[in-house]
Specification:
The complex is a heterodimer. Chain A contains eleven helices and three strands. By secondary structure, chain A is mainly alpha-helical. Chain A folds into two domains: about 120 residues, Four Helix Bundle (Hemerythrin (Met), subunit A) (Up-down Bundle); about 180 residues, no CATH class. Chain B is elongated. The chains are: A mainly alpha, B mainly alpha. Chain B: Keywords: Cell membrane, Membrane, NAD, Oxidoreductase, Quinone, Translocase, Transmembrane, Transmembrane helix, Transport.
């Protein structure tokens, strides 16, 4: 570092040639034909493009307009592609343009659009720990820049001669020495693709399940006005045994169907919550696929039972008439759903319990 | 070219991304900052690969191969990350990472925490009633 400073002090007042000789005398053989203050054209271009890239990156992380952040990210990534070209890595540069500018930024813009990001300025783009983050980043930048400059101050890249990173060299190396990781990477991309599809598709299937259940509504009992429960009960009774009618004495029409399913293992398997009031219950917890009778997870169905207790009514004193010995647990489950029910809403019974005989 | 130019630029870009990850609140902006950090690493890999291929007669070109791998993994990461962000936005109605505190420990038990605790207790009671 002191050598560089001394060289700069010398060269700052004199011409380039004596500075160059002093520099070579001081730094030795590693810097025979190079100097800090006689930059080549490539270095000047790298510096200018680097300034543009760094400025675009700074605007990306500090702007309050989310879409502008994505567009400034394009500038930063494109500047990095130009830097790769200046480092003679042409294949990497075009891969950068294709993948980052072409797909990643488009994905980010789609993500911003799908999450309903505000178009104008959003005042809460930065969180409260902004100054702590600034402190950490500036400290890390100072440490890294100091270490890097101190470590590589006498190191030069020789960009003359044949290009070290041309496409032919990269391709030969990639398909001779790196074939196995390359193929493994394709498997990883496939796994990531399938994972992204699964993550995006599961919620879609959940949101589309209530219309499927409400389509079977005409099979319900005519005595209950909101008879979607009964449709579920009939569906459950197809695979199970016979349904058990439980009538609430508070209302003449309010009833609940308790279906004891023969092949169920848990006493309380699934209780349909959202179907009592329609498929569009706006609570997020009700999206946990409420109406599938064969859902094997008892925890999810118990959670739907709590939702049911909020929206259902009428089952305050359900007297289930057992027609077979298997309906005992169903009665217990109906008692379990009891405390949260309010008798205000008419005719939405607590639905369907599946009990193991 | 002096090796300090790409190394210093990569360090500055990395710290810019670090600031973005720490200071941003929107999850997609955090993903953008992660992309900046990955690109800083890529610049380092390319610069040192070009240096070593001339200085140390390295014919393996591990730097460029690793850069390609990093780019592919970053593409996979951004796909999965955006899928997760969209799923969270669909369930919670927000992509604000300061509001996703379900797994946080703290003295305050408000918002989703209390709801989750109530659901837990209710679920336990339900299991008892069913047993």
């Amino acid at each position: 570092m002191t050598l560089a400073v001394a060289t700069a002090a010398v060269a700052g007042v004199t011409a380039a040639a004596p500075a160059h000789t002093a520099h070579t005398a001081l730094t030795g053989a590693a810097a025979e034909t190079h100097g800090f203050l006689s930059p080549t054209g490539v270095e000047i271009a790298f510096l200018l493009v680097g300034l543009v890239t760094f400025g675009a990156a700074l605007v990306t992380v500090t702007t309050r307009q989310l879409v502008h952040a994505a567009l400034w990210l394009v500038v930063a990534l494109g500047g990095l592609a130009v830097e790769y070209l200046l480092l003679t890595a042409e294949f990497i540069a075009w891969v950068q343009v294709l993948i980052y500018v072409g797909s990643v930024v488009v994905l980010l813009l789609f993500g911003l659009m799908l999450t309903k990001a505000p178009i104008g300025r959003s005042p809460d783009a930065d969180s409260g720990n902004r100054w702590a983050a600034l402190t950490v980043a500036v400290a890390a930048a100072a440490a890294l820049v100091w270490v890097v400059v101190d470590a590589f101050r006498t190191t030069w890249i020789d960009l003359d001669g044949p290009a070290a990173g041309s496409t032919a060299v990269t391709g030969a190396s990639l398909f001779q020495n790196w074939v196995l990781p390359f193929e493994a990477l394709s498997v990883l991309l496939l796994a990531a693709l399938v994972g992204a599809i699964v993550l995006s598709r599961k919620a879609k299937a959940e949101s589309s399940s209530p219309p499927v259940n409400s389509r079977a509504t005409p099979g319900g009992s005519p005595t209950v006005p909101n008879s979607r429960n009964h449709s579920i009960g009939r569906k459950g009774s197809v695979s199970g045994t016979d349904p058990v009618e439980a009538t609430s004495p508070g209302k003449a029409t309010g009833s609940a169907v308790a279906t004891s399913q023969a092949n169920a293992t848990s006493p309380v398997k699934a209780i349909s919550p959202a179907n009592t009031t329609g498929p569009a219950v706006p609570k997020p917890a009700s999206q946990v696929k409420p109406a599938s009778p064969a859902k094997p997870k008892p925890t999810g169905s118990a959670e739907t039972a709590t939702d049911l207790a909020e929206v259902a009514s009428g089952p305050a004193d359900v007297t289930s008439v057992p027609t077979e010995p298997g309906s005992g647990p169903a009665e217990a489950a109906a008692d379990g759903a009891e405390p949260g029910s309010s008798p205000a809403e008419p005719a939405t019974g607590p639905a369907k319990q599946e009990g193991a005989p | 070219m002096h090796l300090a130019y790409p190394a210093v630029l990569a360090a500055l870009l990395f710290c810019t991304g670090l600031y973005g990850v720490l200071a941003r609140r929107n999850a997609i902006l955090v993903l953008m900052s992660v992309e900046l950090m990955l690109n800083a690493v890529n610049l380092n890999l390319v610069a040192f690969d070009v240096w070593l291929s001339e200085a140390a007669q390295d014919t393996l070109h591990s730097g460029q191969a690793l850069t390609l791998f990093t780019i592919a993994i970053a593409a996979a990461e951004i796909g999965i990350g955006l899928a997760i962000v969209l799923a969270v936005h669909r369930n919670r109605g927000t992509s604000d990472i300061d509001k996703l505190r379900d797994t946080a420990e703290g003295p305050e038990a408000d918002g989703p925490d209390s709801d989750a605790a109530a659901a837990q207790a209710d679920r336990a009671g339900k299991a008892e009633a069913a047993a």
